[in-house]
Amino acid sequence: MFKALLLLVTLAQTPNAKPVELGIIAGTISPSHESKVILLTPQYAALWTSDVQKRLDMYWERYKPAFAAKKEFFFEVSKMAQRDSLDFVLSRMQHDPRLQSSSFIKNTGSDGKFEFKDVPVGEYKVIALTKSGADEDLLQESVEVTGSVPQFVRLKKDTP
Fold first, then answer.
1. Angle CA(95)–CA(101)–CA(103) in degrees, nearest 5?
2. In this predicted model, what pLDDT tens digit does every residue of 93-133 receive, in sequence order?
3. In the chain, which residue ranges form alpha helices assigned H by DSSP?
4. How far apart, in whole angstroms, are the C-alpha atoms of residue 153 and residue 139?
5. Do 36 and 120 meet the contact criterion of CB atoms below 8 Å apart?
6. Segment (H or E) for 24
7. Residue 50 φ/ψ region, left for φ over 0, alpha for ψ in the -120 to 50 degree band, beta for the rest
8. Contacts of 82 (CB under 8 A, 6+ apart)
9. Residue 29's closest CA among 132, 153, 158?
10. What does the domain layout of the chain look like in residue ranges?
C-alpha cells in the first residue's frame, strides 16, 4: 500500500511530457488534375519501400527472360509492384486502430492541391495516384516535418 502511494506521489510530481510538435505538409501535383494523395507515416513508408523491393525481387526472378528480351517491360512491372504494395499498405493502415486513416488520404480537385494538417514530427512519404486517360501514374516524394513550419511538396511526373 505504501509503495503504491509513493509511486502515485512521485508520478504527480513529475513534470508533464513535452507536447508533440505538429506541422503541415502542403503541395501540388504537376500537371494538375484530380488525384488521390496518400501520406505514409514513417512506419508505413518503410513497409511500402520494403514491400516494393520484395515484389521487384520476386518479379525479377520470375520474368528475367522477358526483361532481357524487352527492357521496357521492367518499367511496367515496377509500376505494378509499387501499386500493389500501396494497396497492401493502405489495407494495413485502414485496419490500424492507432491511425485515423482517412486523415492520411486526400483527394485533390482539378487544381492538384492538397494539404495534411497536424502531422507529427518525422519523415514521411507522399504518394499520389494520378490518371491521365487510361494511364495511371504513381508519383512520390519524401518529406521531413521538423516542426510547425509548413513543408511544401511538388509531385510531378518524370518523363523519360
1. 170
2. 999 988 887 789 999 988 999 999 999 999 999 999 998 77
3. 2-13, 42-69, 72-94
4. 11
5. no
6. strand 22-30
7. alpha
8. 52, 138, 140
9. 153
10. 28-155
Give the angle subtended at the CA of 123 by the CAs of 105 and 100, to the nearest 5°: 30
C-alpha cell at 141: 516524394
Return all residues near 126 (Cβ < 8 A) that are at least 6 apart: 25, 27, 37, 38, 39, 40, 140, 141, 142, 143, 153, 155
Taking the C-alpha atoms of residue 160 and residue 158, their distance in angstroms, rounded to an integer, is 6
Using DSSP's 3-state secondary structure scheme, residue 117 falls into strand
Q: How far apart are CA 96 and CA 88, in angstroms?
A: 13
Q: What is the mean pLDDT of residues 69-90?
A: 92
Residue among 159, 144, 153 at smallest CA distance from 113: 153
| Model pTM score | 0.80
Q: Hey, what amino acid is at 141?
A: E
Q: How many angstroms from the chain centroid is the CA of residue 9?
A: 42
